[in-house]
Design a protein that fits this description.
The chain is mainly alpha-helical. The chain contains 6 helices and 2 strands.
Length: 122
Amino acid sequence: MAACRSFEVAYEEFSGDHGVLTKALLQCLNPEQHPDGWVSNYNLSDFIKQQLKSSSQHPTFHNSGSDIILTGKRDESQASENWEDYLQIACNRLRYHPILKNPETEEAKQACVICQHYVWKE
């Protein structure tokens, strides 16, 4: 991750507390900002791009492979030991995985169907 492209300037907030990227980063790392309570490298970059889309500063990201859970909130479903709770945790972690954003394999398509039906209710 870089605060801006090579030909841009990375700006500081008027308050002087943080740079523009740091402010967006701190907002994003709050698990309460995300419906599933998990922050991964993929939803971090999506959130920051959305926050700064009208800015003249455009951070750059390089994500590859599986998502990395950066932070999250622990709730009662994570503490219990039944299969529905584990399915919810797994589906919420899969939500931002690049394979599920554009599922091509039969396994990825089936994972989407299961998560949508049982967890995401979409």
